[in-house]
Each structure stands twice: as structure tokens, then as C-alpha cells.
Amino acid sequence: MKRLKVTVDGKAYDVNVEVIDEIPGAGAPISAPPAPVASVPAAAPAPIAAPVAAAAPKTQAPGAGDVTSPLAGKLVSLEVTVGQDVQEGARVATVEAMKMNTYIYAPKAGKIASVQVNPGEAVDEGSVILRIA
Length: 133
Hints:
Layout: E1 2-8, E2 11-17, E3 66-68, E4 73-78, E5 85-86, E6 91-97, E7 100-105, E8 110-115, E9 122-123, E10 128-132
Antiparallel strand pairs: 1-2, 3-10, 4-6, 4-9, 5-8, 6-7, 8-10
């Protein structure tokens, strides 16, 4: 029998342990070097597949009069309609992300040419919400 002290979750216990079989060399440091590992030849690289054409984007890339979403979220409201005149800096839309509303302002003065997203729809960061002519 051996008496040992064992600590579990910060609490110390005194235990008696019965030794059934002694393992030769148990507790002695290992002095033999590790066995060499056989190297495996590297496999030939897989052939590169031909490029696949990317799917066409839902909308065109943003232009000078495009009002884009600054973050991914849901378009909560549009404060303008098609054909309406707007001044630079006027609030035109609201996007909600993570329960916070972000107001979007007109980058330039002009007339609302088209609306690309309806309230309630999801928008990606950088996606066009509306166009100002």
C-alpha cells in the first residue's frame, strides 16, 4: 500500500493506493532517443481546375449616383420615392443591423432614379439601395 495525496479541483485528498504490479523502470526518465520516423514522399500536386465563371451579380457595381448600404442588415425604411428631388446629405434610407438603426444619406443632390431594394429585404454591405440621377 502507498499513501498518496491527490488534488482535484483545488481540493486535496489523502488516499491509500494498493500496488498490484510494479512496472519495471516506472518513474525513471527515458534516456533512449526517439525512433526515427520514415519519411513519406510527397504526393504530386493536384491539377488546377479550369476557372469557373462567377455567377452574375444581382446588381451592377455602384456608380457615382448610387446609394449603397454601409453594412449588411435589413432595409427598414425608405424616406424617398422614385422621381423625388433630394439634396446632398438628406436622409434617404434606414438599415437595421444587430437591433441598431443606421441612417443613410444622399451622397449628392439630384432626383431619385430607381429603388433597388424594398423595405423588409436584406441588404449586403456595399449593395445598391437606390440610384440618384
